[in-house]
Every structure is written in structure tokens, then in C-alpha cells.
Amino acid sequence: MVTMSKLVLCACKRGKKISRQKLSDWLHELDNQNVAYTLVDDLCGLAAKGKIELSDVSDGEKTVFIGCQPKAMRNLLKNAGIQVDENKFDFKNAKETPFDFLKENDFSKGQSKQITYDKDWKPWYPVLDYSLCTSCQKCMNFCLFGVYTLSDEGKVIVENPENCKDLCPACARTCPQGAIVFPKHHDSPIDGGEGEFKDDAGSLLTQIQKSNDVYQLFGKQKKSFRCFII
Question: Which of 10, 114, 124, 135 has the greatest number of CB atoms lying within 10 Å of its CB?
């Protein structure tokens, strides 16, 4: 008996990692091929605020997630307490995966469903890759906003994701192991993709360290440049 795979598509509702056109193309193709799928409004939001709904999506069956960077999605689930069995879970980048992928796999057929994310908070926050993290605490000591803390076992964890400042990935640039991922960032490797860190952040990091009012500094950066601030 062939085991049919489930398909989960992330819409990245509160970010721009998947364009509206690409999302529309995927939905059109899934409907054309009668593939049963679950449309998740925002996987980052659910991982932080909707863990019950997320556990329903990842209920132990063979599941393929289509969304942003595979590394980001994998660690979002792991950080949310989901047991990620590499034999049952697969992760595909929506921008890079051809639609022929659907024909090459046995997906469940039938009706689709949607899991909404209606919180006001934009889920911008760091995700730790514990296969790389050594709990050196450099991120925790660098972060000004109390995002990180230590567990009882001495492991660095993201305790307060809402404290993270929108568009600030500074801690990822300080991590000596490259273990910090910001799924909604536009550049690799910060978003979990391949690549090397650019050497262009020093001046702003210095501003942050010297500033008496970091919130005001961030506000000026966002208003002036309307881009990622670090």
C-alpha cells in the first residue's frame, strides 16, 4: 500500500519571502492537480503563537512543506517543539522547486484547508539551529531586548520572540557558528540559505553599541531607508 504524502504550503502572510504571484501560481497548480493541501498563513507566526494548530499539521504522517528556505522551516518546527523525523518530513523552497515535483510524488487528493494567522504582531524573530549552536551566549549578551535566555539545562533559547525588533538581525551576524536564522530576512545566509555574510554592517553595529537610545536609532533607520536596518 502506497503511503500518500501531505502537503503544507506557507503563504508568508506577514513577510515577502514568497511573492503573491508565486503563491498564486502554486495554488493554481495544486488545484489543477487535485492535490489536497494545507495553506498556512504564516509558519513563523504559528511556530511562535499557534503551536496547537501546528501540531495538527505535523501529526507524524509523511509531510512536505513548501515555503521559504528549507533550513528555516525545519528549525521553525524544531524550535516549536515538533519532532522532525527526516524520513517523514521534507522541505522545499517555493521559488526554486518546479511544479513537476508534484507529479513525481504521491500526494493525498481532495479538499484543501487553511490555517489562519490573524495576530497583529509581525513574527520577526531569530530561530536557532541547534545542530550548530554551542550555547556560547554571545547572542544573548549582545541582544539589547531580552529575546534570549538560558534554559535550566544551560541551553540558549528564544524566550521572548516578540521583543525582537522588526528588521533587526544583528545577533545573527555576531554568531560565530552561523546558528541563528531569521526566516523573513531577504539575504542568505541569514534567512537560512547558502552564502557568506557581507562585510558591510560594522558601522551600524558600532552605532548601536554607542547609542543612548537604540529605539530612536532603529526608528531613524527604518524611516530613512525603509530596508533591513542591519
Answer: 10
Strands 37-40 and 6-10: parallel
Q: Which domain holds residue 201?
A: 127-225
Please compute Rg for the chain using Cα positions. 18
pLDDT in tens, 13-48: 999 899 999 999 999 999 999 999 999 999 999 999
- Last-in-domain residue among 115, 148, 176: 115
Q: Which helix (H) or strand (E) holds 128?
A: strand 127-128
**Domains identified in the chain, total number:** 2
Roughly what angle, to the nearest 10 degrees, separates helices 202-210 and 214-225?
140
Q: Quickly tell me which residue has 509531510 as its cell.
A: 63
The whole-angstrom separation of Cα 83 and Cα 59 is 9
- CA angle, residues 177, 181, 187, in degrees to nearest 5: 105
How many helices (H) and strands (E) would you count in the chain? 9, 9
48 and 17 Cβ atoms separated by less than 8 Å? no
Q: How far is CA 38 from CA 82, 92, 107, 117, 153, in A?
A: 17, 15, 12, 13, 36
Determine what percent of the chain falls in helix, strand and coil, rounding each to the nearest 5. 35, 15, 50
pTM of the model: 0.84
